[in-house]
């Protein structure tokens, strides 16, 4: 074997991808980076505010302080605080002098409403994890494995062509067989392309993804309604008039009809309300952007893998409406690009193909690696001229 053939063999052997399937693919990302960010903020932020509310209660004491009459004992004053916190109703007279009551229950329900908010915002994530993630995981495992295997098959094919060329005594026979193989499409492995084409007609993943983000937008709108309807009414009311002349105390003459109380936890309610509106308002454009990504194809990823034989979704214009499962799979392939070992090799080959002077003869990785191995990707011109001279 000549030195040139040995160097070509070493180069092709180095271009083969290592077989690292198995444990290395257990870390597949089944959430897009922006979706993961939305999940952590939408679910984690209410839990942070809930811990702030409980911490304020434990550090500052009771969330209410009532100004009981000076002749009240300590136990009577404690009873007034407890009774007013349990009722949490503001008594006042309107412009017509009629008695009017207003409930201040959002102060009492604040930690539990924040917990309920976190649970509600986690429901779309649960929907995705149980309805779409298992099928998506199997799709990604198969596609990543097939993409890398298709690349390796192309390299092994070039190795086989190099051995045949070395053993062939007549170059005409070798190039005739090679052109016949190209015409018969022997170099193509259409299983993966057909599988991806079938995914264009499937819509289960994209429907689940749309439902997940639509539910996030719906629940965010519900948060605005809740804060605007319930928190806005009590947002700036720090003091209220509480009535303790109920039940057994209704006939007590020494008991004042109304006692003024002060809410020491008002600042926590204000911080929770304003910060929630700010954070969820900032999340809305991110969620909408996640939805708009389904309206366009990731053609850069597809163009790189156009170097593989029988992977011509772009050149054959097989891509139609992008709202289907194939587009979702491409988004997650981009998120798991570190698992695609062949992507870096094919990216380099694409750059080299665009800069080579013979790029009109190079369509696939087989053509390019054939050229690098010292073989012409098509029949040399001097052999074509020889055949023409022999057959005038």
From TrEMBL:
Transmembrane feature ranges: 37-55, 109-128, 209-227, 268-291
Single biological process term from Gene Ontology: monoatomic ion transmembrane transport
GO cellular component: endoplasmic reticulum membrane; plasma membrane
Sites where a glycan is attached: 71
Keyword match Lipid metabolism: no
Keywords, comma-separated and alphabetical: Cell membrane, Endoplasmic reticulum, Glycoprotein, Ion channel, Ion transport, Membrane, Transmembrane, Transmembrane helix, Transport
Entry protein name: Pannexin-3
Organism: Neomonachus schauinslandi (Hawaiian monk seal)
């Amino acid at each position: 074997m000549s030195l040139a053939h040995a160097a070509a063999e070493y180069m092709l052997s180095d271009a083969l991808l290592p077989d690292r399937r198995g444990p290395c693919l257990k870390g597949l990302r089944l959430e897009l980076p922006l979706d993961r960010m939305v999940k952590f903020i939408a679910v984690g932020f209410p839990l942070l505010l809930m811990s702030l509310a409980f911490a304020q209660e434990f550090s500052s004491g009771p969330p209410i302080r009532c100004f009981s009459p000076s002749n009240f004992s300590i136990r009577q004053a404690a009873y007034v605080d407890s009774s007013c916190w349990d009722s949490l109703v503001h008594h006042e007279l309107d412009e017509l002098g009629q008695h009017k009551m207003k409930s201040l229950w959002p102060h009492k329900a604040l930690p539990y409403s924040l917990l309920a908010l976190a649970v509600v915002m986690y429901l779309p994530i649960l929907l995705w994890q149980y309805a779409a993630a298992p099928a998506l995981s199997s799709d990604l495992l198969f596609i990543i494995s097939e993409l890398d295997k298709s690349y390796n098959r192309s390299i092994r094919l070039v190795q086989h062509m190099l051995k045949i060329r070395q053993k062939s005594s007549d170059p005409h026979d070798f190039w005739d067989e090679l052109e016949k193989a190209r015409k018969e499409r022997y170099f193509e492995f259409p299983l993966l392309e057909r599988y991806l084409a079938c995914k264009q007609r499937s819509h289960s993943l994209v429907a689940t993804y749309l439902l997940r983000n639509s539910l996030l937008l719906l629940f965010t709108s519900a948060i605005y309604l809740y804060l605007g309807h319930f928190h806005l009414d009590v947002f700036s009311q720090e003091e209220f008039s509480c009535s303790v002349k109920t039940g057994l105390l209704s006939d007590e003459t020494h008991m004042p009809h109304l006692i003024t109380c002060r809410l020491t936890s008002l600042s926590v309610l204000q911080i929770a309300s304003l910060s929630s509106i700010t954070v969820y308002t900032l999340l809305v454009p991110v969620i909408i952007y996640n939805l708009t990504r389904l309206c366009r194809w990731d053609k850069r990823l597809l163009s790189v893998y156009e170097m593989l034989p029988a992977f011509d979704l772009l050149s054959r214009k097989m891509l139609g409406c992008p709202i289907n499962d194939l587009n979702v799979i491409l988004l997650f392939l981009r998120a798991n690009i570190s698992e695609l070992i062949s992507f870096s090799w094919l990216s380099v080959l694409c750059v080299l193909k665009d800069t080579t002077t013979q790029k009109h003869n190079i369509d696939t990785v087989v053509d390019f690696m054939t050229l690098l191995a010292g073989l012409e990707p098509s029949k040399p011109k001097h052999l074509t001229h020889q055949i023409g001279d022999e057959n005038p």
